[in-house]
UniProtKB/TrEMBL annotation:
Keywords: cAMP, cGMP, Hydrolase, Metal-binding. InterPro entries: HD/PDEase_dom, PDE1_N, PDEase, PDEase_catalytic_dom, PDEase_catalytic_dom_sf, PDEase_CS. Residues 109-358 form the PDEase domain. This is Phosphodiesterase. Its cofactor is a divalent metal cation. Binds 2 divalent metal cations per subunit. Site 1 may preferentially bind zinc ions, while site 2 has a preference for magnesium and/or manganese ions. It catalyses: 3',5'-cyclic GMP + H2O = GMP + H(+); a nucleoside 3',5'-cyclic phosphate + H2O = a nucleoside 5'-phosphate + H(+); 3',5'-cyclic AMP + H2O = AMP + H(+). The active site is at H186. Zn(2+) 1 binds at H190, H226, D227, D333. Pfam families: PDEase_I, PDEase_I_N.
Length: 445
């Protein structure tokens, strides 16, 4: 059309109305072509798909996908790459040789476990496994002992050629990280408990037969590290107090992001890099799985996870392994209420103790926390002063007690004399007396 118009102009044979119509038509045509072109640019993933089928090497499309789209780079599984016979024989021979070497190294270096530890570990496949007994028997090293036991039981050490020196050093550092904040609940005992529970779930449900060895390794590893360097406070606390962690991780799964990041930074050190002999693809796959699993332990994703799994079970399509494993770790993480009472009650007390510790530093409290704590303090103080001997439905630990004292002194209760000055006198489980209940009703509705 444009060429035709140019010719008409040259020949000075121009109908003004016709020229205008033709120009409008051409402009709308060019606009349509332009918009279509932009859309094609937006469908980059489709184009990548096309490239893939056009015989472009997978490395190239993978790189394009990881650089220009939201798609994570999936480790390439080359089932169709057929190695030559000779290379298979060599690989198998070399593999067997190295595995034997690693097995021998482990057998030689395996510490002679005390009889009590061996005794505890007999129950490792059961739901009633007593992780507190293992803690005592192993001289306060439940995580090291348990993880080492599971890695060797599943023969992951020889399969992935995990150097024993690295494993020992890594586990030592891992336990130290869990001890960093001296948490009553989020300690290495909790990590050992969750790891054992996950192992029990994998075994008892038969899921272990559905997984590759790398997925088993990633799952056990994720469980062992899932609360590494936990600060003993909730994500909300970190966010509301504008903590460094909240600033680093932009208020998103703050604790969980730190557990993962700090662990992988620990693995960067040669001395503790237990995955040194994994191939690049294996390492990428393991890392992706560990990240997904640990991030899913954030309680704020609980409902979403349960809903997604329910929907997934109603469909005939297969269940995505990372999703299933994430839910499994989350289940193990909050499983203690389904354990025998002796275990569950210990965990509950430890968790309550940790929750109460969190509100102790007065200067870190937000207005909301301040009023919450003040009301709590009022109720508890009133109730303590009203009853003699003191009755309490929850065990008042030294931390809770000092917390009450702080508020009794700081608030309008300076003159209240607390009748429980010494630790020995602290009350045990008893019924909540009516005065407190009445005050509680008045204050909290
Ligand atoms: N209310 C309540 N919370 C729990 C219980 N057990 C564990 N949790 C919380 O659930 C969280 C799960 O992830 P974490 O282990 O980081 O921290 C855990 C606790 O904060 C429980 O019995 N009751
Ligand atoms: Zn946990």
């Amino acid at each position: 059309v444009l060429r035709c118009m140019i010719k008409q102009l040259e020949e000075k044979d121009v109908d003004f109305e016709e020229l205008k119509k033709n120009l409008e038509y051409t402009a709308s045509l060019l606009e349509a072509v332009y918009i279509d072109g932009t859309r094609q640019g937006l469908d980059a993933e489709d184009d990548l798909q096309k490239l893939h089928s056009d015989g472009v090497p997978t490395e190239v499309t993978d790189w394009l996908a990881s650089t220009f789209t939201q798609k994570a780079r999936r480790p390439a599984r080359r089932s169709d790459d057929k190695p030559k016979f000779r290379s298979i024989v060599h690989a198998v021979q070399a593999g067997i040789f190295v595995e034997r070497m690693f097995r021998r190294a482990y057998t030689a270096a395996m510490p002679n476990q005390p009889a009590e530890v061996v005794n505890c570990l007999r129950d490792i496949d059961t739901w009633n496994f007593d992780v507190f007994s293992l803690t005592t028997a192993s001289d306060n090293h439940p995580l090291q002992t348990l993880f080492f036991e599971l890695v060797t039981r599943y023969e992951l050490n020889s399969k992935f050629k995990i150097p024993i020196s690295c494993l020992t050093w890594f586990l030592e550092k891992l336990e130290r990280g869990y001890a960093k904040h001296n948490n009553p609940y989020h300690s290495s005992i909790h990590a050992a408990d969750v790891t054992q529970t996950l192992h029990c779930l994998l075994l008892r449900t038969g899921l272990v037969h559905w997984l590759t060895e790398l997925e088993v390794l990633a799952s056990l590893f994720a469980a062992a590290i899932h609360d590494y360097e936990h600060t003993g406070t909730t994500n909300n606390f970190l966010i509301h107090t504008k903590s460094d962690f909240a600033m680093i991780y932009n208020d998103r799964s703050v604790q969980e992001s730190h557990h993962i990041s700090a662990t992988f930074r620990l693995l960067q050190e040669d001395q503790s890099n237990i995955f040194v002999n994994l191939s690049r693809e294996e390492w990428m796959e393991l890392r992706a799985l560990v990240i997904e699993m640990v991030l899913a332990t954030d309680m704020s994703s609980h409902l979403v996870q349960v809903k997604a799994m329910k929907a997934c079970l109603q469909q005939t399509d297969g269940i995505e392994k990372p999703k299933a494993l994430s839910l499994l770790l989350h289940t193990a993480d909050i499983s203690h209420p389904s354990k025998p009472w002796a275990l569950h009650s210990r965990w509950t007390k430890a968790l309550m103790d940790e929750f109460f510790r969190q509100v102790r530093p007065v200067e870190e409290l937000t207005t909301l926390e301040f009023s919450y704590v003040l009301c709590q303090s009022l109720v508890i103080t009133f109730w303590i002063t009203q009853t003699s001997p003191v009755h309490c439905p929850l065990q008042i630990t030294p931390h809770i007690f000092s917390w009450i004292q702080v508020w009794a002194r700081a608030g309008p209760f300076q003159n209240v004399i607390l009748p429980v000055p010494a630790e020995e006198k602290q009350p045990q489980h008893m019924m909540l007396p009516p005065p407190c209940f009445t005050v509680g009703m008045v204050f909290f509705g």
